[in-house]
Amino acid sequence: MAGGVDLEDIAFVSLVSVAAALQLTDFAKKVGRMRQKCKVIPPEVTGHPDFDRAFRAQQNSLEWFPVFMVVLWVAALFFHQVPACILGLVYLYARQSYFTGYMEATEKRVPGFKLSTRIMILLLILSLAGCANTILDEYADIHLFKEVRHLVKL
C-alpha cells in the first residue's frame, strides 16, 4: 500500500500514463525529423507546410496532455481504473490518428480530434461521478453508486 492506495489499483493507469509519455516522445522525434527534412532551423517554428502541420499536431497533443493526465488519474482513482484505462487507450489511439492525419493533410486530423474530444468528455464524466460519489458518501452518507446498482437490479 502506498499512501492509502494499493499499487495494484493504479498499475494499469500507470502503464497508460507511460504509454502516453512514450507517444509524446515519438511525436517529438517525428517533428525533429520533419524539421531536418524541411530545413527549419531552431528556434523557428514555422516554415515548410509539412513541418508546420507536424509541429501543430505535436503542440496540440502537448496542450491536451495535462488535461488528459488529470482526468485519466481522477477517473482511475475515484471511479475505477479499468474503464479509465480502456478510455485512456482509446484516447491514445485517437491522438495517434490525429497526429498521423495532420501530418498528411490538415483535414485528415478531424476524425482523430473528434474521437479524442469525446473520450476526454467521457473521462471527465467518470472523474466527476467518482468524486461526487466519494464526497456524498463521506459527507452526506449517500452511497450514490450503491443506489444506482440497486436501481439497475429493479
Descriptive account of the structure:
The protein has helices at residues 11-38, 49-78, 81-104, 110-140, 144-153. The radius of gyration is 19 Å and the shape is elongated. It contains 5 helices and no strands. The protein is mostly helical. Helix content is 80%, strand content 0%. Helix 1 runs antiparallel to helix 2 (49-78) and helix 2 runs parallel beside helix 4 (110-140). The longest helix is centred in the C-terminal third of the chain and has 31 residues, at 110-140.
Present the secondary structure layout.
Elements: H1 11-38, H2 49-78, H3 81-104, H4 110-140, H5 144-153
Helix pairs in contact: 1-2, 1-3, 2-3, 2-4, 3-4
What class, by secondary structure content? Answer: mainly alpha
Number of helices, counting only DSSP H or I runs of 4 residues or more: 5
Q: Largest sheet, if any?
A: none
Distance between the termini: 37 Å
Low-pLDDT residue spans: none
Shape: elongated
Whole-number mean pLDDT: 94
Rg over C-alpha atoms, rounded to the nearest angstrom: 19 Å
